[in-house]
Amino acid sequence: MPSTSTTRTTIKKPNDGPCAACNKEGALFRCAPCRDAGVDVFFCNRDCQVRQWKIHKAVCKKASSTDPKKGQVGGNKEAKAEGKKEFQYRKNSQLCDRCLKSDVDIGSKLSMCSKCNSAYYCSRECQVEDWPRHKHQCKHNCEKAKSLESSLDSRGVNIKNLFQKWTTKATTPISAAAFYVLKRKGLEQQPPVKVVFVEVEFDYNAQTFVMAEVPRAMAIADLSQAQKEKIMEGWNHKNRSDQVYAQVAVVSTKELGKRFDTIFHIVLDDNILDSMNASDIDVYTIRHKCAQVRLKSDLFRGWKSIRRSNLQKQMNLGQSFTAFVQNALQFFCNKSLQNTHRIIANVKMGKDIGQISQLLDYNVLSIAQFKKSKESVGKFVIHVEDNESKSLQCTDMAIETLFVDFDTYFAFEYTVFCGVNVIRNKTAKQCKKAADKHFRKFQQLIKEMPSDLLEKVNL
Asked: Given strand 382-385, what is the order of strands in its sheet?
């Protein structure tokens, strides 16, 4: 019987995979002849390989058969293809952990261990006979599943608490969303037949809940019975004749596979409508008002440094961004803009903390306009420096570029250090063309950067 060998990161093939005997993920032992033939077959340990050998040996021999003309292991391409095909069949089928009969052999689905849901048996007898071997693995699997469930429950509690905290502060954006739907759908029925539905999601960069979908009308019949009773109870209690509008909004979020929602009973009188500039309310206004409701929590401790580190990793991709800044501010022209103008870029942030999903466009603004745009974003601007381009030369100049995600109003200011002693032999048109070229190159670098290089956080 062939020996087994462990594989680590020194090879380019997968380091682990599902065990060919028990289907458990993370098996590290690989069948050596199959490995040499280009077929990935893994086992948890020597015992799994011994148990599976009666079935696996046919696959192993076919995959590792020698081409008589070339005398090379695995030279027979047809045998290799047939071995891979048989392995895929084995991977997609179920085998009894005791007698190794498949679901095809017995003509029905195998039974599963009710405790760990990871072992399969063709009969009760096989399960009883296999229990002395399986009980230790069963206990380990149950503890692992319980730990994972506990982790998800604790994270679910964190999301729920943040959502409740946000909804207590979000009266203005929810009222704006209700009026937005009322203005278009006319839902002021008494009692209500439809409600306003607002879907939000947690944004790891803005550290608050932002609008995920356009507010819409939803039939009250589509809600749960508990929600219906809560809506009608609040409606009957708050509805008065002196109100201009009275409506119900359901604010909902789905995180970690769980849905949390809150019922809002909204009274829109003249004072509230005037304070919101109701005539100008649109989707962008509602999204902005949602993002302005900032949250504070101990859960966010340490996020700022992680966010800054992730942003630095992306901004330091090559020298494209520094070259873009120099050309956009016309460093190479006689009439340089380096002392009078700055750059503001429109970005779209990803779901992970500090992840830049897409660079959209940029504008060169005067310093006065730049400061005004920065003030409009608010006090939550993250400051990031390009440490790689920083030089000890006193002739270097610090240039700030403001990046803003206008969907969530998350913003960060990135500082690069550019040398001012450059050859000024270009025209403004040439600089603009070069800036656009470097900006497109940097867009591509951001797009192609693997997300697994960034540090992640979980609530």
From this structure: 356-366, 341-349, 396-405, 410-419, 382-385
